[in-house]
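Quick one:
INPUT:
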């Protein structure tokens, strides 16, 4: 028979003393080893990939709730009348504002004139008419077929 190794000798000695936990674990009970890391799919030198959700990277967001206003402030705010709404909506600035100015001319304007004023293509001008002006600003855009081609205009505002 061959001589047992050091580890086997420790296990046998612990078993002879009746210590079942150390006998089963051997030397590992006295000197725990660090768990081995699973090999990553990422090549060495690259940072680990961030966890991703169904639509993109997961981001932690902190939400704080504001403390409720003191009762005295709420009573004061309720007693004050609400500010009167603005009589006329403010016109947008930039290229959409330039389109609204062209549309408010007495004869209206054509797509070509709006293209020249904004530098946009025809489909972008029509999209701005439908989205930003009709839906966004809530203005009525009237389209008419004339001798000069199709013209667009916004009806004159009725004084209140």
């Amino acid at each position: 028979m061959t001589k047992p190794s050091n580890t086997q000798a420790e296990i046998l000695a612990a078993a002879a003393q009746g210590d079942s936990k150390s006998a089963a674990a051997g030397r590992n009970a006295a000197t725990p080893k660090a768990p081995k890391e699973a090999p990553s799919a990422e090549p060495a030198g690259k940072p680990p990939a961030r966890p991703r959700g169904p639509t993109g990277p997961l981001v932690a967001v902190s939400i704080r709730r504001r403390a409720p206003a003191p009762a005295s402030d709420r009573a004061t705010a309720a007693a004050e009348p609400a500010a009167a709404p603005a009589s006329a909506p403010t016109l947008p600035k930039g290229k959409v504002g330039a389109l609204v100015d062209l549309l408010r001319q007495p004869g209206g304007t054509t797509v070509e004139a709006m293209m020249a004023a904004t530098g946009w293509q025809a489909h972008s001008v029509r999209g701005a008419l439908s989205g930003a002006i009709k839906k966004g600003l809530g203005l009525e855009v009237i389209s008419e077929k004339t001798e000069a081609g199709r013209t667009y205009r916004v009806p004159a505002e009725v004084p209140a």
